[in-house]
Amino acid sequence: MTTVQVQLEPAKRASTSFWHAAWYRYRRNRLSVVAGAVALVILVVAVVAPWVAPYREATIDLTHVLARPTWHHWLGTDEIGRDTLTRLIWGDQTSMSVAIGAPLVGALIGLPLGILGGWFGGALDWVVLRLIELFTMVPTILAALLFITVFGVSVWKLALFIGITLWVGFARLARAQYLALRDRDFVQAARAGGVPTWRIILVHILPNAAGPVIVYFVQQIPYTIFTAAGFSFLGLGIQDPTPDWGKMINDAETYLATDPLLVFVPVVAIALACLSFSFVGDGLRDALDPTSK
Hints:
Elements: H1 18-28, H2 30-47, H3 49-52, H4 84-120, H5 122-136, H6 140-151, H7 155-181, H8 185-192, H9 197-233, H10 245-252, H11 261-287
Helix pairs in contact: 1-11, 2-4, 2-11, 4-5, 4-7, 4-9, 5-7, 6-7, 7-9, 8-9, 9-10, 9-11, 10-11
């Protein structure tokens, strides 16, 4: 009797990683995938602006003032002969610096406060709550305007001023996450095993709280873009010679009837950036929700 040995290939083990499952859910949302690609292009252009812009950010060509699109100026020029495409690209760098920098400042301030309040509770949590309530009483835009008026404005100052007004949301979110997670079984097991407190906070709980924080961070980017552009449009934000989308609209509104492209280009850029990051945030919210199907 002949025995036939059949070697079976081991079954491919399904990934149980939370992040792998989140990526799978995100990929199923086609709108968020497209928005993510657009947002990535916007960020890449902001990084490589010095190499892809046709001209330097402050280059002026007085022989081509308010020129129509040509081979030398694909989107025309503004009222003093600056290339619109160049200012659009450099304005992307300015806007993205503020849009990423401001939520980063808010996270660096708010997350440690929220984590400490949520984990330790007691008097420390009371102090954190009072700080949150105090800053909630002050309208964020008015607070940013106050900082701008007193200290002046630049790209990084604007990111700092807006970021200071964003820390409250990060603190609330971090506090809520740590209050919900600090009594979970895996945390109690870590405590019983003698794991240091700092390691429990950073290694055991923080990765489990990272999903909502990432979503909130991304959702603040459209708000920051719109807020920074609004300040520049009002003449309170970025000033010449630094290009900025809001400043482009401010400069071009006088010529709306004669050259609408000068206003149309930065408006479309702001709308595209805000929509793309908004859809990315919505996609991440659904993908990082463990109850998503």
